[in-house]
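Data deposition worksheet. Section B asks for the primary sequence of the deposited chain exactly as it was used as input, without tags or linkers unless they were present during the calculation. Section C holds the resulting structure in token form. Section D is free text for depositor observations; keep each observation to a single sentence. Incomplete worksheets are returned to the depositor.
Section A, Depositor: J.P.
Section B:
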Amino acid sequence: MLDRRNFMKTCSRLGLAGTLFPGVLWAQAQAEGAKKITKVMIENAAAIADVPIPEDYKQMMLENLNDQAKGYEDIYKLRIPNSVDPALVFNP
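Section C:
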């Protein structure tokens, strides 16, 4: 499962937040019901948004976006009921 907030954060780190690119890529992933972002999706979104993205950036984007999605899948597997109160203090 992809998380829009972290997806946009990753695009911001790459300097793409002010372009049409993140919205197009997010829409593609949602329309296809994709569990992962693919290189083809990045290339298509870049073409629509008219944003040139170097190959090494595409690979970095794939790794970052798909790694973040894995963490959210693990959290969703915990099945924490709504009756559980959120932690008010974090002490690692």
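Section D:
The radius of gyration is 15 Å.
The mean pLDDT is 77.
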